[in-house]
Records
---
Amino acid sequence: MLVSTPTHCPYCGLQCAMTITHETAASTAPAIPGGTVTVTGRSFPTNRGGLCQKGWTSAELLRNPDRLIAPLVRRGGRLRPTTWEHALGVVADGVESVRAEHGPDAVAVFGGGGLTNEKAYQLGKFARVALGTSNVDYNGRFCMSSAAAAAGRAFGLDRGLPFPVRDLTAACAILLLGGNVAETMPPFLGHLQAAADAGGLIVADPRRTATVERALSGGGIHLQLRPGTDLPLALGLLHIAVTDGRIDRDYIADRTEGFEDAWLAAAQWWPERTERVTGVSVTQLRRTVEILWRARQSDTGAYILTARGAEQHASGTDAVSAVINLALALGLPGRRGSGYGPITGQGNGQGGREHGQKADQLPGYRKITDPAARAHVARVWGVDPESLPGPGRSAYELLDALGTPDGPRALMVHGANVAVSAPRAGHVVERLAALDLLVVSDFLLSETAAMADVVLPVLQWAEEEGTITSLEGRVLRRRRAVPAPTGPRSELDVLADLAGRLGQPVGRFRTDPQAVFEELRAASAGGPADYSGISYPRLDSGEDVHWPCPAGPDAGVRHPGTPRLFLDRFATDNGRARFVAVEHGGPAESVDAAFPLVATTGRVLAHYQSGAQTRRIDELSTAAGPMFVQVHPDTATRMGVVDGQPAAVRSRRGRTLATVRCDEGMRLDTVFLPFHFAGDERANLLTNPALDPTSRMPEFKACAVTLEPAVSA
Ligand code: SF4
């Protein structure tokens, strides 16, 4: 029998639509239900029927031979299969023991940007109500936090793209800073086609990436900046826009505030100085401003987008603010046919940060320090607002404190693989090893799960119901498309079970995804990310709903959702967008004789995030090839390493092994490493955990390294 189910990809924030067809077989495997599962692209505004290699092969996750089926508990130094009763008993006893000895904050929770909205919501509630801990944060802190913080302070609200992706499709001018969408989310590139064909696609990236190639093929521009100089690049562009009269003075007067201070900061970034610091020529800087301004004036579509290359810095929030300042000066945000937005990376990177698994937030994107927000959420949860803990440690600070005298002694990880994905990963592994109790919920034995005391096997993407929120704030249904295997349980079920064992009343933690969503709606009502008017039936009927979508005073009136934000006013108190004056401080560490190169990290086409899933899919693993370090041929010669041969890359924090890949599209002072590989090949053994003071984002995108030949294993 053939069963076809419409759903969305398990991987990135574009959330391409797909149909999963399951053909049941006469005979079934003992634990994982048998039958073939095929994936086809489905027509949808973000992917228009297209999928990338990761999406096409995603069904292999459902039949992966490494799939975890039974809970595992460490005994005699080894993880051994056991029953759920025993595994959850070990977790509950361990948590109780740590809490009794060290207090509630000694138990920490680390979530993920791939969890459904329901799980992200439940996890934050579980941490604060069942555990009573303030120490809950998630891996989105390493992904979108700088963009979110900068959007919050400029516009009063962060929703990723404040306009639908399809608005980009007709634009003639798009400046993309720090994103390689041709590899990270290929169907997105189709939306940049018109700009590329018009010579209006401008890409700021230290590397000559596939996205850069597309821009250049249409006559666009590659701003090949030094890593860590996005901020002065944006200041220099603003300088030119102002001095060349390429700014919208009426818009600035009517819709913004703070321009004068932002201009004073940018005034110091005259073109020649900007060229000297960023490595981008004055000619290219002027052409960039001219292209954006011409498109803006002629109303042919002008957009500025940022991604992790500009954001993952110890000054990432200020870098994004500098970019937003430029967008505001050109008059782009809050208008049809123009705008600024960040491109979310993780599958539910957007919803994952709205529902309460962040250290400083409650559901609905509410501030945890706001008494009214605490009272509202406590009412929905049926608890005393005074019992809710305050803000906790941010992601890296939480990991850094594990097992220390004042830090958490037990950690529960859901949907994250921090042993690979956290900065200074060698140190993070040491901290994980110092815990009294490490519990990991996952469907594969990730590198973090392999270190755990207890591993809880959970259902994955196409085996359960839920919702996610895409990079454009559109709420989507993920649907069960195949039968769940025998053994793994839903994380909602696991958290509810654990909550009961920890003394919570029956029914406080629901297990049905739709019931959890109903509670999430109530918790978000009236907050910045208001989902109260969104329901499973609305989504199932195919409605296109972007938040905010309040229920409204009359339950019979349907709010249509908000595809485009800020058209009338920004979400600040006075409705004006705020310029923010920012200064350039440079990367947190400098190159010197011992570490003469700058390493930057990123993704490749065939892998996703820590690679825990995609490394297990043969087709993807073969396509991606081995771990590599990309370097200019002249730099390779200077450092004594050879194309195709093994090399060691060293920073002040660690050493990574990689195959040398020479590429003339690299800057002479820069090397690139993908961060999907494990063991000695982890790029994050090198990266710098220096944190942005506002977003607490680590500096993934610039650290000083050296390169030397290594002996093959
Ligand atoms: Fe999945 Fe992203 Fe590829 Fe689309 S672009 S198929 S969402 S990984």
---
Amino acid sequence: MVIKTADFVKSSGKWQECPEPNLPEYAFIGRSNVGKSSLINAMMNRKDLAKTSGTPGKTQLINHFLINENWYLTDLPGYGYAKVSKVQRRDFEKLINNYILNRNNLVNLFVLVDSRHSPQKIDLEFIEWCGESGVPFSIVFTKADKLKPNIAIKNVEDYKIELHKTWEDLPELYITSAEKKAGCNEILNFIQTTNEF
Ligand code: GTP
Ligand code: MG
């Protein structure tokens, strides 16, 4: 897919405040600092469309971007950020879960996990929740440039083994690097083929 335009639309503190759900939408979710905003920028070929930071907890609202004037790309706050209070963490979770469950035009959720780590409980629980809730999702491994390619592939294989303990069929998996712009075209192709525009 050729990206002709990518425009910030708005930041919302509640799903009810999001733009009218009149276009297909794709959202990025995952732990704080996993690289959601960076991958959005890499896919859109823009440096600063979504705000990134070395400090976890940068994205705190639901951010909508309008792409090619016919679909929405959404950057969500990360889950599991340890340094905020329990109440704040629960508020974030509520914001994310309500958005996912109520956003009728959401075509697919990309769940990002760090390719350097073995499967983490918080991510597995989130993936399980998506499955149980009937949310269509794919898994995106991030920061692959920080690993030797064979190690990245092995970590993905380990992840598959872990997922197979619960699921027979696995979702689409992508290995990406925002730094090297790897895996971006594959995700964009998937978006194009699942979209009706
Ligand atoms: P929150 O908004 O806080 O939830 O974080 P996020 O998931 O949006 O992460 P963000 O894109 O802000 O990136 C976090 C840090 O990881 C930044 O310092 C990025 O430069 C770095 N980073 C993100 N993607 C990559 C990648 O593919 N490779 C490398 N080497 N670093 C990355
Ligand atoms: Mg972010």
